[in-house]
Amino acid sequence: MKSEVQELVDKGIMLPLMEEFYTIQGEGFHKGTAAYFIRVGGCDVGCHWCDVKESWNPDIHPPTQIEAIANNAAMYSKTIVITGGEPLMWDMNPLTSLLKEKGLDTHIETSGAYTLSGTWDWICLSPKKLKLPTPEVYQAANELKVIIYNKADFKFAEEQAAQVNDKCILYLQPEWSKRDTVIPLIVDYVMANPKWMVSLQTHKYLNIP
Fold it and tell me: How far is CA 144 from the centre of its chain?
């Protein structure tokens, strides 16, 4: 039998909160802009190069009332980025409803592997080979961000680009530990295929969270 807390988590009334912080968006279309990040625990996509593996197990992150999360967010920024883990493992409708009531812009960073829930001003889709996005996420994505770990990932990137909507902005981003190897490959690829743009984890170069 589920506990009362677990039932609230399942409904999106509470969420396993790993961390929340105010910083500069380091990646993709909104890089360089101030944003408040809400990192939700829980992910079963299992990328071997993931740099936040501590987010995978939701049980180690405290179930937190979404009212508290929304109130904290509203004190810092108009732009709220919900990330993970994989936030779409949980129902995002209750949290995004609270954030929109406060007049905030809602962004999500997701692998797209789960049903799309929530109200979003911006959807960053970062698909993973182990668990591909749902058709609805492909069509709703504002930007596609494919992580390049090796040469085979360029083929995967093109397969993903073929499925998003026509207005979706396309990014190739080097996996951080392989950046010295893959950045020259990405530069050459984008120059040969200018529908793509380069995304860098600029927050790591700036040494900020």
Answer: 11
